[in-house]
Each structure stands twice: as structure tokens, then as C-alpha cells.
């Protein structure tokens, strides 16, 4: 039996990507941003095709991601942030709402909106996920944006 296989390639050439970055916990998010840019460039993209937008915190990521996704100027939007759990359930509330909102924007607009928000119990875990031994979640989200954009273009 023969079937049609659609799978993404990892070529970012010509891909216009918006990176929305939370300023809160910038000691982590700057590393996520660097990882995302590095990923896009190493996969054939150019810095000229990347737009980075800083927002106050993770809770503000969806609003700006929505504006970027609906602008028609970008093939993908990547949200980057870092939420570290504190003594209250505030982190859970933010993480849940941001995740649901980003997914809803992608579904509504058809533009890939990737969640590169690090959700960590401790600062050490955040550091690990922002470029230390657990990799860089900014890189991972940018790589997923490249692949998903390729898949959607093939399906069009």
C-alpha cells in the first residue's frame, strides 16, 4: 500500500519568525532568545527575517503573539518566557493560562504559535532549561516552528 507522507523539513530559509520574549526573569529569557535565534540561523534562516518583541512578563506573551500571528507578516510566532514556582499557586495560574492562550491563537489563526515558556520549580531547573545541561527550550521551540511551518505549507 502506498501512502502520501507529509513531514517537515528543517530549513528556515526565507522563514519569517517573530519571537516574543518575557522581560521577567530576563537572566533566563535572554538565553532562550539567543538559543532561538541560533537555531533559526543554523537552519538557514537570517537574522533579517527574525523579529524579537519584548513584553513585561509571561502573562503578556499571548496578547502580543496574537497581534503578530494576525498581522500577516510572520510564518511562525515563538513565545519565550520563564516562570519559576514560588510559595503561592501563581505560577500554575500563569503557566496554564499562557499555554491555553498560545494554543488557541495557533488554532484560530492557522499560524504556528510555539510555546517556549520554561516552567520550573526552582531557579536551578530554569537555568538547566535555558541552555545548561537540559538543553535550551528557546532552541527547541524555534526548531518546532521550522518543522511545523514546513508541514503546514505542504498541506496547503
Q: Can you tell me about this structure?
A:
The structure is a single chain. This protein is an alpha/beta fold and 156 residues long. The protein has one domain: 3-Layer(aba) Sandwich (Rossmann fold), CATH 3.40.50.960. It is 47% helix and 19% strand. The chain has five helices and four strands. Strands 2-1-3-4 form a four-stranded parallel beta sheet, with helices on both faces. Helix 3 links the parallel strand 3 and strand 4. Helix 1 crosses helix 5 and helix 2 runs parallel beside helix 3. The longest helix is centred in the middle third of the chain and has 20 residues.
Nutshell version of this structure?
The chain has 156 residues and is α/β, with parallel strands linked by helices.
CATH architecture: 3-Layer(aba) Sandwich
Task: Identify low-pLDDT runs.
Answer: none
Q: What's the number of extended β-strand segments?
A: 4
Mean pLDDT: 94
Could you give me the name of the CATH homologous superfamily? Lumazine/riboflavin synthase
By DSSP (H or I, 4+ residues per run), the number of helices equals 5
Structural class: alpha/beta
- The global form is globular
Kindly identify the CATH topology: Rossmann fold
End-to-end distance: 24 Å
Order of helices and strands: EHEHEHEHH
Number of domains: 1
Enumerate the strands of the largest sheet in spatial order, edge to edge or round the barrel. Answer: 2-1-3-4
CATH class: Alpha Beta
